[in-house]
Amino acid sequence: MKGHTVKSLLEYIGCITSFEQRHVAQWVYRGHCDSLFELTPSLFRLDISDTYANWHEAEAYMMERFKREAIPHLSAKPETELDWLTLAQHHGLPTRLLDWASNPLIALYFAVCGNPTSNADVWCFGLASGNNCWPSSTRAARKLHIESVSCLVFPRHVAPRVTNQSGCFTQHDLPDGRTPFVPFNKQRGLTGFFVRIRIPAKHKQDILNELYELGIHRAFIFPDLVGVSEHIKFDMVAQHKRGTNPDQVASIMRSFR
Per DSSP, what are the bridge partners of residue 126? Predict the structure, then answer.
């Protein structure tokens, strides 16, 4: 696994655009606001040691309840089990899915938006090309057959959050019984590889403000009233460094003469 450290949005973009493309069919990205976090789906972070249930039974119990109690809040009923898992995952229910984004700026937002005193990581997963490695090709040609040869899943857009977050998942098998889950990046036999980008804690707020200027903020990430409220609150309380450009300042001053 390769590692990089970046201190600004510009450095991050430079790092992302340097990644291998010819032999990689798809890059996906995941942000962790604390560098101690592992690549472990939320279901397997639960402590079920005080029950006789295994992972299968714990998942089945939660999904049965979610399907029963979510109905009044749905404008359309999900059609498949993956639809249900996608809805559950995007609304905070622990599932076997691990969230990723095909947009690296979304992952960076999640990395820098919380835990201001902790270093952050953006995990990048490059899925090896299984269709062609030509020097030039369409994106579709690169990505054909991805879902049939990997655990990477692009769900139906059953909620606005999936769309705005460029959401996709890796879907993981349930371990036998209550066996602990092996973090994704430590598993064997993967047809891809990982790059970890570290963001030091002291640079998180500055990068968050830089993302804001590009339209990557709470109201975009969470397109609902909670997101709108959090976005307005951010405007009111988050201070940012106001850079200056001498040439542009001179031009502004001339316009007042």
Answer: 27, 193
